[in-house]
Amino acid sequence: MAARIIDGRAIAAQLTERISDDVALLKERHGITPGLAVVLVGQDPASQIYVRNKVKKTRELGMASIRHSLPEDASQEELLELINRINCDPKIHGLLVQLPLPGPIDEASVIEAIRPDKDVDGFHISNVGLLSRGKRGVVPCTPLGCLMLLKHELGSLEGCDAMVLGRSNIVGKPLANVLLHENCTVTIAHSRTRNLAEQCRRADILIAAVGRPALVKGSWIKPGATVIDVGINRLTDRNTGRSKIVGDVDFQQVSQIAGAVTPVPGGVGPMTIACLLANTYQACCRIHKLDDMPDASRV
Ligand code: NAD
Fold this sequence. Notes:
Elements: E1 4-5, H1 8-30, E2 35-41, H2 45-60, E3 64-70, H3 76-88, E4 94-97, H4 107-113, H5 125-132, H6 141-154, E5 161-165, H7 172-181, E6 185-189, H8 196-200, E7 205-208, E8 226-229, E9 233-236, E10 243-246, H9 251-257, E11 260-261, H10 268-287
Parallel strand pairs: 1-11, 2-3, 2-4, 5-6, 5-7, 7-8, 8-11
Antiparallel strand pairs: 9-10
Helix pairs in contact: 1-10, 6-7, 6-10
The protein binds nicotinamide-adenine-dinucleotide.
């Protein structure tokens, strides 16, 4: 039986419509416009596209968005000084520095320089700590998007066996924490995990965040499982030179066995950006202590 396709584009569109209403209400009730600052260092083509997209989507929802571009050879001091200025700007509620950073700049120091309540990526150590304690901080956008997709598909996740493939600080680890707080029994697998296929076959929920094209095969899937594919891998055809984006999951095989699966593109990607918008609106409400406003990240 073919799996249901979890339509991330449609679910993200619903979420952004809701945030747009919340932003309108915020302006009407309190006269405040949420503001996002996006900092790009260097000329990386993929980063430029991501940043352009984030700024555009933020403005479409009626929020303010400012892009700051620094040259490739900007020093760490210059970047920290810019972050400090944005931290103090009362019109800006969300601040993100597009990663990866070029050259010798120390990524960890840069992330730690962001004011935690403006850290809409949820990467600051304070937000990491709050998430691990199950307290309200900022949840990173991709894990939050995965949670929303799972809740949309399954409702309660309580008691589910969840396998997270990948242990990165931006996806795998925070996602494992998020699922733990939903009362899943969570396993994290990584490049040194033994008997990976066998371990995956026990999972009711399998999330692949590895960065290896079509790693997850149909034979790794428990029949009826829900599979979320976070991977974004660009494959270029040697003959035609054309490139396409594929996930970490062998979609053809897995969709024959799983109960539901996200496509790539059109699954997790649109949710990540929608959750950035939700986090920006939410940061604004939190900074201004507006307890009467709806929670944009409600699932
Ligand atoms: P990463 O490189 O930081 O981490 C990859 C993880 O996969 C590591 O923990 C590693 O141990 C594990 N791994 C590598 N090879 C493995 C193997 N053969 N078997 C099991 N585990 C293995 O990557 P990341 O930043 O977490 O991103 C993962 C993927 O998700 C990438 O393709 C990235 O482009 C994509 N991504 C997508 C979104 C989105 O919005 N859709 C957001 C962030 C990342």
